[in-house]
User: Fold this.
Amino acid sequence: MQTTTAQPTAPTATSTKEALMEVIDLHKSYLSGGRPLEILKGVSLHIYRGESIALTGASGSGKSTLLSLLAGLDRVTQGQILLRGDAMQAWDEDRLARWRREEVGFVFQDFRLVKSFTALENVSLPLEILGWDGQKARQRAEELLEHLSILPRAHHFPHQLSGGEQQRVAIARAYAHRPLLIFADEPTGNLDPETSQQVLDSLLNINDEEQTTLIMVTHDMSVAQRMKRHIPLRAGRLEEDIRSAKDEGAKA
Amino acid sequence: MTAPQRPTSQDAQGITKLAWRIFWRYRGRMLFFATAIAVGVGFLIALGNLLDSINGSIARQARTLMAADISISSGQPLPPKTQTWIKDLEKKGEFHSSKMLIFPSMLAPPKQALLSPSSRPSSVSSQPSASSKPSIASKPSASSRPSTHPSSLAARAKDPKSPSFENFRTPILVNIKAVQPTYPFYGALETTPKAWRKGFFGHHACMLDRSLAEQQGLRVGDTVRLGVLALKITALIEAEPDQLTGGGFGALAPRVMIPFDIARKTGLLGFGSRVSYRTLLKTMDPQRTDLRRIADVKKTLRAQLQIPNIRVTAYTEAQPTIRDILQRVAIFFIFVSLVALLLGAIGMAASVTTFLNEQMETVGILRCMGLGPRDISALYTRLCVGIGILGGLFGLTLGIALSAAGLSLVQNLMNLQLAWSLHWVYILESFGLAILLTWGLNAATVRSLAALSPQEILSGRQSQIPLSRRALFWTGLALFVGFFLYAARAALSLWVGGFFTLTLSGMILLCLLFILLALGACAWIAQRIQSSSPLAFVLRHGLRQLVRQRARSLTYLLALTIGVTLISTLQILQQSFEAEVQITRYNKMPNLFLIDVQREQVEGIKQIIRDFGGTPPTFNPLVRARLTHINGKKIQRKALRGASLEARMRANAIRREYNLTYKRTLNESETVVSGRFWKAGSTKMEISLEQRWAQRLGLAIGDTMRFDIVGQPVEGTITSIRTINWRSFLPNFFVVMTPTALQDAPQQLITSVALHPPSKIATFQRALVRRYPNVSVIDLGRVIDLVRGVLGAFLAAMRVLAWVCLAIGLFILAGTLGMGQRERREKVALMRALGCQYRTLVAIDVVEFVTIGLITSVVVMVVSWGTGAVIAQQMQIAFQITAAQLLQILLTALLLPFGVGMLVNAQTYRAGVQENLRRSE
Assistant:
């Protein structure tokens, strides 16, 4: 059972807490063929700690653009994104990078592993960027790989791993530094249904354990349904904000 | 089961269209690939065509250069049988003949000639004045016939009993040429006044070289004394067609021409005189030249004339010899062009491999759409052929331009009438070479790409085209053999071609070995840097970035090191060569040769040289001799038809007349490289030989040589081998003997003097001639100017080639560092997404590029030093490398990859995460 709330996000039981991120009237346009092409047309929402959110919508609806703006990978055209009340558009690239380094993890549809690094080195990478020493980073990476059942493949290079294995390495990398937020762009989009379920299980399990906020772009409604919150987009606008009964119940 | 179908012509057409589409889509890169090989191809084509054009022009002028179709040259008159045979040829209407005598002698100018021009009659009358007309009434008796030996003539000139010499100064050395009215058969004798025949033949007349006339203050109409005859100067010689063939020692002396009929009347052709007897033959119908008949006549003459030291030359023979010599002169440029071609080929192959790697996805899709491995192979082979055709076209265009420019330069330097032409062979060679290289070097990669299954490609299991070691081995071997054959053909010598190929291959293998070691060391270091400091992070990732993409790193490090090594080697050699040439700019370099000096004149001449501020001279005795025996065996005349240049040069070296010297110590331009030079007081019959000359004759220490000196045999043993710096312009000799062996032989003295500035030379000459009229002064100024001109052009061409190589190297660098640009973009985007700061990413790349630079600089310094030293030894130049040069190499190798790398990646650094991710897809 799901409950539906109309846009903009109405205060719920969850919203009584302080929002981790606030998105206010977000607009984003690109120049296409010399003309501005508006992708997002006034999106507003609140994101709370520990939530798992599915952003769905047809191709071109703006879900990936919204994800990249939330992650600070791109700049807004108009509107605001507040992180714990702080306006992110005022941040310079270094501050954005520091935030991503310390509090954000990414999972991409096509894995985006460094091809010349082994699975272990890929998972260690965010820790190394954070300044961990090699030995400690390696230990943490091994823990995660073991947790995701791919430790035997730790010294394999990406091209020696299957798609599912590669995505699990990517998940381990995203969680390695215990981020507050995970942004996942269609993490199961390149996988078969069975592997897709395994990867999703891994992602949600680790999310539950680490109490991380997960924001995932997906086409797959069955995947979206497993999230605590489902936000479909249509033509650059937030269509509705659906919370799962389980989540509602839990909050109640 | 059905057999796989062969592609139909329609399929082939489709593949060609697809190849063209890819070619056009990536036209910018195709242009780059084609340009990379076009430069080397262009230089080779230019050189080949230039050599052919010069050769062709010389061949067309060969008759003019000999003034005949066939020339017979001998140290004695032709046997009666041969003379009769030649007369028969004339009677049959086949050939004209013309006789000629060439001999060195002494010419006595009139006393009034040394007066200043203002004190002489101003009219340039063609008639001698009555007062200066010498008495020629009394013919010399047989007993008073003078010898041509300079010392006896000089002595005779001072003989007070010879009243007819009163009006003349003591003679000077000249080179006499006595000609018949039929001379020259081809070409023109240029004189002032132009109509030289009138008043020359049938008269006691002569013509002088303009430089001699100017030196001695002589004019047309003056009377000079030659032997016992007084001869009127009827014209001044500006240019003679067969000047190049009038060789010998006398060629250093100025030319004097006299009518053939009066040669004997001079009394100079007695016993012991050194006369070259020449007979020139010309076919009666030169429009329809029967080359076979000329060859037959030459063959018959050679069969009849089994006399030592006789030479029969047909004009057709001049061509291959000149071609061989030109080829040797051009060999350095050919090799540098081959290096440019190799550099370009490496750059092209590395860039095409990157391109083909990027094409993997397209190939996967095309395979899914039904194209088989054979189709893929055909598609990319056509693409390579297309690149080859474009490269050939560019190469040909460049070659034509360079060859035309080169011809104009050579024409100015050699003062030859040269006609430019383009031979179809070079058009074919241009396209053939370019296509063969693009196809040959990429064939293994194309085959491996075609052999990949679509699944392997699309699943991402293969991130790069896997190249089999076997394919690499065969490609390398084919390249090695091809290079060797081309170099051997260009050098006209298997040994030189082999040396060049082996040096180059050795250099490449050394580079490879050093790079592998360096990459291993980098991997080891990266593994051991585990600290959490930002610097450790940057170092670890910078090194990891380099060593993890081993194949890619190896490719571009190899291309880079080979490129920079070749450029550096070339620059080191160029500077070593320039340092050698600097010697010729040194103010103390001799610019005058004094010949025919008598021993009693030495002190007086030294004083005059001192007065004029010249360098203190060392006088060397000069003894003329013929080699008769080597190791006790008499030298036999051998048939040389079809013999190699080496064999012909060896035979000529054996048969020619030698100028020997004797001395107690070596001069500063000589270095003993083998054996020991004798001690000052040695009484043994010892010989020291010049190294190259000894090699040409196949002589070594311990061998014996016997010379004939005016009928007397003189034999000695070779006890040392020397090298000579000929650019010193000091009097040097191939053969030096102990004083014991030669001091009693008839001799004259020779020396060289440095007299600067050159404006002093004319006054010096006059002062010297006034006191010692028998001494001839040869001004080397013109020779030195010519040598400087040629060397200047040579160095300029070397500099151009070095810059071309550098430009190709930079092209390759940009191309190779651009390799894996997609992956670099993806990594930068990912690292940025993971929170890596901009400066950290740049620092990681700086570590990678600086490491590349360090590896390159170390490898380049070591290998180019070694290669330069080996080649310098082969070129016989002193190898010089300075700290500044080493620093230059270090900085070039260090900064080039850094600069170009940062430039190539600037866009990646500037782009945001999303843009880089998008571009890397």
The longest strand of chain B covers residues 95-108. Residues 32 and 748 of chain B are 66 Å apart (CA to CA). Chain B has four domains: 8-66+332-477, 70-120+144-288, 513-588+779-921, 616-753.
